């Protein structure tokens, strides 16, 4: 049943798949990013309490959600790499980590810029903020662990193990606003009802979430292609590709 | 449109500094990672091309030695 997946373990096929997917992700990313930003900045109504400062939500929440989403995908790739010994999955772990780190940094910076006018402080050692900071360190840890090994096979295994161990941080981030007293406001989008946010703000937010997800996809695909090329640079198919382009 | 004028839009009801700081750094980081990823591709392709030229040169030199 899952046999159709097997050819994609081959580097060349995976490279081609990235090439096929990339234009779709790019179109979705550019379109939703433009719509989402203009909608969020200029057309969504101001909040009754936080006024126009709340507009930071349109990049803060998407980047925070995607920082965890990207980490989950990285951990799934790490499991595949460790259990089935698929090298492309290992490369995927390393392709996702840098963009995941960037998105996490955006979540932290936009959070700080929102915290200053609303709480009066750029940073507090609050459970939500601290656990998100640890997520950034996990991404950076996975990356530096990978680059610390000369032998890339050992490097991939070590980085994958760290990525899997770090999953423990995800539920901590998610439930931190419920488990501990916190300055951070509660969830904006809950799974079962959307009453926490008005539709006029909910839809631009959704568009921005799609935009960030597509962006993570675009950068991951570009980086995965790079990692495959780097690993396979002595193979004939890469050399053939060069003469084609 | 929620704002009456362009200067109103920039001011963001007095929160302009924080809003534009957020969106500005966000755009800078997103563009940064995108451009650096695209540059990596060029670098790898160049390394492969250089290697090909090098191999070609070695092959030529060997042929000249033998003849």
Describe the structure.
The complex is a heterodimer of chains A (245) and B (67). Chain A is globular. Chain A starts with 10 loop residues before the first helix and ends with a helix. Chain A is mostly helical and 245 residues long. Chain A has helices spanning 11-43, 57-83, 87-119, 127-148, 152-165, 169-179, 199-231, 236-244. The model of chain A has no long low-confidence stretch (mean pLDDT 88). Helix content of chain B is 85%, strand content 0%. Chain B is rod-shaped, with a radius of gyration of 26 Å. Classes of the chains: A mainly alpha (245), B mainly alpha (67).
| Tally of discrete structural domains of chain B | 1
Report the span from N to C terminus of chain B.
79 Å
Unreliable stretches of chain A: none
Portion in beta strands of chain A: under 5%
- Element string of chain B (H = helix, E = strand): HH
- Oligomer description: heterodimer
- Total strands of chain B: 0
> What's the rounded overall pLDDT mean of chain B?
88
Spell out the blueprint of helices and strands.
The complex is a heterodimer of chains A (245) and B (67).
Chain A: H1 11-43, H2 57-83, H3 87-119, H4 127-148, H5 152-165, H6 169-179, H7 199-231, H8 236-244
Chain B: H1 6-11, H2 16-66
Q: Quick gist of this model?
A:
Chain A is mainly α and 245 residues long.
Which descriptors apply to this entry?
heterodimer; A: 245 residues; mainly alpha; Four Helix Bundle (Hemerythrin (Met), subunit A); B: 67 residues; 2 helices
């Amino acid at each position: 049943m899952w046999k159709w997946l097997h050819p994609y373990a081959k580097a060349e096929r995976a490279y081609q798949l990235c090439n096929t997917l990339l234009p779709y992700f790019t179109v979705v990313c550019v379109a939703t990013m433009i719509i989402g930003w203009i909608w969020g900045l200029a057309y969504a109504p101001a909040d009754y309490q936080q006024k126009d400062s709340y507009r930071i939500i349109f990049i803060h929440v998407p980047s925070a959600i995607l920082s965890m989403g990207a980490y989950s995908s990285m951990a799934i790739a790490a499991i595949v790499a460790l259990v089935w010994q698929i090298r492309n999955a290992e490369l995927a772990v390393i392709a996702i980590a840098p963009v995941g780190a960037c998105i996490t940094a955006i979540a932290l910076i936009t959070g700080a810029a929102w915290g200053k006018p609303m709480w009066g402080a750029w940073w507090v050692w609050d459970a939500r903020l601290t656990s998100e900071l640890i997520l950034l360190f996990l991404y950076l840890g996975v990356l530096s662990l990978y680059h610390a090994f000369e032998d890339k096979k050992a490097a991939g295994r070590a980085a994958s193990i760290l990525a899997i161990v770090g999953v423990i941080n995800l539920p901590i981030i998610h439930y931190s606003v419920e488990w501990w007293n916190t300055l951070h406001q509660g969830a904006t989008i809950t799974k079962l009802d959307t009453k926490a946010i008005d539709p006029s703000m909910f839809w631009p937010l959704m568009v921005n979430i799609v935009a960030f997800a597509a962006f993570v996809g675009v950068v991951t695909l570009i980086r995965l292609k790079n990692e495959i090329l780097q690993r396979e640079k002595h193979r004939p198919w890469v050399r053939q590709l060069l003469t084609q382009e | 449109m929620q704002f009456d004028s362009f200067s109103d839009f920039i001011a963001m009801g007095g929160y302009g500094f924080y809003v534009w700081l957020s969106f500005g750094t966000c755009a800078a980081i997103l563009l940064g990672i995108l451009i650096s990823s695209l540059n990596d591709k060029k670098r790898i392709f160049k390394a492969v091309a250089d290697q090909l030229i090098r191999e070609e040169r070695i092959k030529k030199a060997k042929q000249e030695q033998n003849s």
